[in-house]
Amino acid sequence: MENSKSDTAHFVVRERYLSAIEAFIDQPVVKVLKGMRRVGKSVIMRLLIDRLINRGIPGANILYINKESLAFDAIKDYRDLYRYAGDYFKGGPPGRKYILIDEIQDIVGWERAVASFLADGMGDIIISGSNAGLLSSELATLISGRYVEIPVYPLTFREFLTFRKNKGDTKDNADQPESLQPKSETDNLPHTEAEFKNYLRYGGLPGIHQLPFNQEVLFSYLNSILNTVLYKDVITRHKIRDVSIFDKLVRYLFDNVGNITTAKKIADYFKSQRIRTSVDTILNYISYIEASLLVDKARRYDIKGKRLLEFSDKAFLNDIGLRHGLIGYREKDINGLLENIVFKELQARGYKISIGVIDQMEIDFIAEKQNEKKYIQVCYGLGSETAVEREFGNLEKIKDNYEKMVISMDKFFPAERNGILHRHIIDFLLE
């Protein structure tokens, strides 16, 4: 494989993903990058290739297949893939081989080829996919216990700032103020409220940083990505016939980010709009959307009863920019958008997240990782006593010693109340 540093010199390095892969390099496990389309998996792979070459691996011992490229259109199924890899490495230099396959779900029966690569000791295998179902059922069937999954998320706010700084353009649209100065001498990221507004509006897909920060341009780009995902990864893959109902369901989910979502509730809403469909159809469509990694659901958890509650999940978007490309940006939705951002941040930090319920009151997030647990409330502002009592009072009902925190847009609210912390959302995202 011919590679040069110049090909990737302009890329921003997302070190945590590269480090996560490198920890398993030369180990007999398949490295699986899972994330929605355009989240940056291809760039991570190309940067990994650079690092392999810098280790002294000959380019001829590295095979990179990107199924979004027509150059690999002839690889239709597992037989084609196995033959292609065998032919590629035939007569090459000695040493360990490295096989990287991007968007592998577009190869029919791919898991059989990957299992064979493992059985034959062909080398290191790194794959990516944008379908959650594919990366669970297929992998579990043939290579159970022989793969490690590395989720790839849209940019965190810190990464977003790094991309903006790297671009050399940290001024906002004409209708927004110029970016402010860095937070401190040791933090040269453009730590600004203006940039946070950009993040709220445009989300965290890396590709937006290759375009002018203009609402019309970016919303058009984001909408085109959404259409690609919906039609290629959902409608076509699952042979959905009633596209009209499917489109309406997508809009409903995007419009109700952070709200309790049940198939029955959605069916009742559709009925009120004189749209006929079944609960089963809605459940199927939602599962397809989840599999495409557009949406994540968080289960609700009874804190006192210590049990998961059935049939009342919350849906969050993997990228809020896609929502705004579809239905526009609306200030009135700010509470749900802030919740979505905190949810994705917690995911990126490796937490398992559920929604808490105590005495019929809701706790926005229970975040758990190993022996760590946090209870978190998220709101726009604490400008009234009612808001203060709601956000802090709900947390005060939880009688354990785990960390409890309220996150808001308030910059000058006291740092804690009765042992419950308060964090300004930008400070939380950059901690």
Characterise this structure.
- Helix 5 links the parallel strand 3 and strand 4 (123-129).
- The chain has helices at 5-8, 15-22, 41-54, 78-89, 110-119, 134-142, 157-167, 193-202, 215-236, 243-255, 263-272, 279-291, 320-327, 334-348, 385-396, 425-430; strands spanning 30-34, 62-66, 97-102, 123-129, 147-151, 260-261, 295-302, 307-317, 352-358, 361-369, 372-378, 403-408, 416-417, 420-424.
- It has a 9-stranded mixed beta sheet, sandwiched between helices. A 5-stranded parallel beta sheet has the order 2-3-4-1-5, sandwiched between helices.
- The protein has 431 residues and is of the alpha/beta class.
- The chain is globular, with a radius of gyration of 23 Å.
- Mean pLDDT is 88; it is low at 2-6 and 170-187.
- Helix 11 crosses helix 12 (279-291).
Indicate the overall shape: globular
Strand order of the largest sheet: 6-8-7-9-10-11-12-14-13
Order of helices and strands: HHEHEHEHEHEHHHHEHHEEHHEEEHEEEH
Largest sheet: 9 strands, mixed
Number of helical stretches of at least 4 residues: 16
Unreliable stretches, pLDDT < 50, 5 or more residues?
Answer: 2-6, 170-187
